[in-house]
């Protein structure tokens, strides 16, 4: 923390003519913004939202919908070529399901065919989302995990993962959702 | 003081835009002289100036080059409909430059109406180069073909074209014989082959021909026979059943192309057909095999573009055989797969840096890197001018020591004193920016993603990099402080892009208010995404 304070003081030493600060001199910098921007070049229907940024917010929110948008930085026509090549050469298509995590604004996609057991799937998900997930049947033993994994089956019902044999799960799973353990109650009873 | 005729003669030797800009600042006389004899104008940011101003200042212009959207638009970071429309420019040019001959556009939106105006307004029109543009269809191309009697160059580089019909090529009249460059590689659907063949046959000056994927391999020899004078050839799909008659006629066709220097295309390669190219290999300076997911043969060239399927072993071969190599580009064959099946690591790049003493420019996608490799590369190749490294997984550390890659990139900027372009990836702290600010005095363009710890990082770059003109940043914890403290620096730059950082709306507004020379724009999408591109005036 001390290091941070001393480095930030660098900015105070700058030429006053170029130093711009928010707010009146003597007040704290509180970049609270309420009004919307009107652009003088292009009008955009999106420019109306109120933005409030907490200065102490250190967590970066990735702006992606599925994978990280625009990463790795290859042009879209290059992506398409390889996607095409892969699906052509693969024997049978992959079983891609969307995976969402409560609280995270981005989705990922997983190919279920890459895994042969729940353990492998869990490992991959925990790696991907950097969290600890407890399996349904482990909950009895209470491994203290904060997250649980549920899936949407062919009938549109949400079930806890781990209840049925792997093969049956694989053929009926349409989507995955990593949810907070505290929200799980009642879900497993929907069978 | 020299008489005007002498000055004008001297100025005619100045072709670089920066030189001409400098010359026009010397005194009023030189400004006036220069503006009357400037034939080509370059506008790096179409929003930096009004077209009327350009036309008024440079009345004798014959060629215009314009750039629109920011670089990160290539990676879907700029929303649809953002801008970069060439329409207002074309309308003004039609009025002010009736003798316009050349238009070169990059990342701009070009409508069919624009193309029609271009086709009908400029009787001497010769060159149309559209790079990474979109907004037009084959109808627009048909207008160009119908009306541009003196067209020499039609170069569509990686454009997104709405393909309504393949017959636009037939709109070139039979009397049209001036074509020198035809690049339609980006078109996805079939063009009329007979029209293409007739066009090639009646274009004796054709030097560059880049076909699209739909032209089959079997038809290549027909085209090559009609154009043995080609210097730059891009094949279509390079895949066919193996037939000896096809093979031998293709081989003969390539052999008769004595001037061929550049090869590209090679979609869907049937490896058995690659050897036909061997007869021209020794004369090639550029080879783009980035659509061919097979290993490339040993070839001598100056510019090599390949996929990571070349693997470390292939690059090792390159390092031993391609002694004139100046530019290496390695694209990822499977950019969205976590574990690579291809054996391409940092070793490949290290080998090339050791063996190819003329290597200046690198764009390299890989999955692991180490500080020691980067240090080796920097020591092997202090003559690097462009170093772009993309480690596919963000924020990945040195795979050997698990440390950030600060020291490695620091070594690059310290040893490669002529470095003008740098793109970084991997785990990076504020320290790397301190190195960059201290050493990268010639750096013109810097791209950063998922790096740094605090505003100090950005401050180092803005305050230290004297030559910096283009800076693009995504997903870094840079907020308002460094930006506001270095506001005057921003005026000297062409553009700054920041997305998914910690810049507040208030800071943007303040910047816009206090620095009237800057265009400050905020893009905010429904997900509360806070992106900030800024544009400094061209001066």
Automatic annotation (TrEMBL), chain A:
Claim: Oxidoreductase is one of the keywords in the record: no
GO CC, alphabetical: nucleus
InterPro entries on file: AUX/IAA_dom, AUX_IAA, PB1-like
Keyword set, alphabetical order: Auxin signaling pathway, Nucleus, Repressor, Transcription, Transcription regulation
Summary of subunit composition and partner proteins: Homodimers and heterodimers.
PANTHER family cross-referenced by the UniProt entry: AUXIN-RESPONSIVE PROTEIN IAA17, AUXIN-RESPONSIVE PROTEIN IAA3
Biological role: Aux/IAA proteins are short-lived transcriptional factors that function as repressors of early auxin response genes at low auxin concentrations.
Name used for this protein in its record: Auxin-responsive protein
From TrEMBL, chain B:
InterPro entries: COI1_F-box, F-box_dom, Leu-rich_rpt_Cys-con_subtyp, LRR_dom_sf, Transp_inhibit
Official protein name in the record: F-box domain-containing protein
Keyword Transmembrane helix in annotation: no
CDD domains named among the record's database cross-references: F-box_AtTIR1-like
Pfam short name (any one): F-box_5
Species whose genome carries this gene: Ambrosia artemisiifolia
Gene Ontology biological process terms in this record: auxin-activated signaling pathway; SCF-dependent proteasomal ubiquitin-dependent protein catabolic process
GO cellular component, as recorded: SCF ubiquitin ligase complex
Domain F-box stretches: 2-43
Keywords: Auxin signaling pathway
